TrEMBL record:
Binds 1 potassium ion per subunit. It is found in: Cytoplasm. K(+) binds at residues 227, 246, 248, 251. Keywords: Cytoplasm, GTP-binding, Hydrolase, Magnesium, Metal-binding, Nucleotide-binding, Potassium, tRNA processing. Coiled coil: none annotated. This is tRNA modification GTPase MnmE. It comes from Sinorhizobium americanum.
């Protein structure tokens, strides 16, 4: 990948479309516009132009917007061609670009990578941009926009500035201990802020579980004995036929999942094989997979069609809540007494489905009144923040200003790796590979 290349790609959605946007970035952008569209348009102003091949053949008429660097997304000279979104039109323009000297098709995420390398975005903002593009729920959008707009980066940069100030004060005391204008107690003063900073970072790390639920979804497992109505409930909640439903026990042999949106959150619903002892090889494998999924559940829906069917002997984390769901009440409502189940429902009539959704919603995070979602959303963030917290703890526990200053440097480097300020070259290929071509 060469920053001296001029790159181009389709940046809009799948074709055909009402409008297609082709993005160009690099030092040859202005010359490319001149060859395809004639005179260079006024910067950052949409101009209606005829787009032609270098032999003068008309390809399309569309809007041309020129963004001279560094005031552009990538920090380089950029251009957007807004064309009619037919496949033939777009392919013809892309072929015309390919024929020009010094241009090549962009790699996945290359526009965003150039924005990072030119200081227009840091890594947290880049990752937020990727999440914003793929966001499917309201909470995923809110989390992504917080990162993409720089809100989370500002928090980390504030912490980094406090660390830099602490190091400067300690090193000043080390280097100029004999000077009258450098008081010997300066390091004592800054340690209170270092201790407070560690507390803030640890509290921030503690919110990673919330971010995981927002990004990856609340994992809800439907479990119970064979023929308890698990697959019927999955189909009812998904509002379409996903799992095969029969009266034969053991029909479900594998784990089936579906993604739902509930109260703005992503919810991953898993239907599992009925738990029982069996000698049938395929069903035993399904039960093994069911137990594996149950072990990673955030919430368990335990189903039974009879009051004595809620016996649970499977391994599950102590903090995983269980909602007991009585099923098929259109057949056996009279057999249930108050308190024997949390929810009574029938997938056939729809009774109780709303009550179950209300119960599930109670287990989603409560973000009422929260205006900021500056929380660590990726394992990479959490790992670096933990390294910073450990270094701060060592600095607080160590004696000797020189050793303490070194631990503060380690903490600062760990924070810098979150935003990409230091030592992240090996991460770049992984991060930008998540992007589509043209972004």
């Amino acid at each position: 990948m060469q920053l001296t290349d001029t790159i181009y790609a389709l940046s809009s959605g799948a074709l055909p479309a009402g409008v297609a946007v082709i993005r160009i970035s690099g030092p040859a952008t202005a010359g490319t516009i001149a060859q395809l569209c004639g005179a260079l348009p006024k910067p950052r102003t949409a101009s209606l132009r005829t787009i032609r091949t270098r032999n003068g053949e008309m390809l399309d008429t569309g809007l041309v917007i020129y963004f001279p660097g560094p005031a552009s997304f990538t920090g380089e000279d950029c251009c957007e061609l807004q064309l009619h979104g037919g496949r033939a039109v777009v392919h013809a323009v892309l072929e015309a670009l390919a024929e020009l000297d010094g241009l090549r098709h962009a790699d996945a995420g290359e526009f965003s990578r150039r924005a990072f390398q030119n200081g227009k975005l840091d890594l947290v903002e880049v990752e937020g941009l990727a999440d914003l593009i793929s966001a499917e729920t309201e909470m995923q959008r809110r989390l992504a926009i917080e990162q993409a707009s720089g809100g989370q980066s500002a928090l980390y940069q504030g912490w980094a500035r406090r660390l830099t100030h602490a190091r400067a004060m300690i090193e000043a005391e080390l280097d100029f201990a004999d000077e009258e204008d450098v008081p010997g107690s300066v390091s004592v003063t800054i340690w209170r802020d270092v201790e407070k900073l560690q507390t803030e970072i640890d509290a921030h790390i503690g919110q990673a579980g919330l971010a995981e639920i927002i990004r990856d979804g609340l994992k809800i497992v439907i479990a119970g004995e064979p023929n308890a109505g698990k697959s019927s409930l999955l189909n009812a909640l998904a509002k379409r036929d996903i799992a095969i439903v029969t009266e034969i026990a053991g029909t479900t042999r594998d784990v089936i999942s579906v993604d739902l949106s509930l109260a703005g959150f992503s919810v991953k619903l898993f239907d599992t094989a009925g738990l029982r002892e069996t000698d049938e090889v395929v069903e035993r494998e399904g039960i093994r997979r069911a137990r594996e999924v149950i072990g990673h559940a955030d919430l368990l829906l335990l189903l039974s069609e009879k009051p004595d069917g809620f016996v649970w002997n499977e391994a599950i984390a102590a903090d995983v809540p269980i909602i007991r769901v009585a099923t098929k009440i259109d057949r056996n409502a009279a057999s249930w007494q108050a308190g024997q189940a949390d929810v009574l429902l029938s997938t056939k009539t729809g009774d109780g489905i709303g009550d179950l959704l209300d119960r599930v919603t109670e287990h989603l995070p409560d973000l009422a009144g929260r205006t900021s979602l500056a929380i660590p959303s990726r394992k990479r963030h959490v790992d670096c923040l933990k390294q910073a917290s450990v270094a701060l703890a060592r600095a607080l526990a160590t004696t000797g200003l020189d050793l303490q200053a070194e631990q503060l440097r380690v903490a600062g480097d760990a924070l810098g790796r979150v935003t990409g300020r230091v030592d992240v070259e090996n991460l770049l290929d992984v991060i930008f590979s998540e992007f589509c071509i043209g972004k």
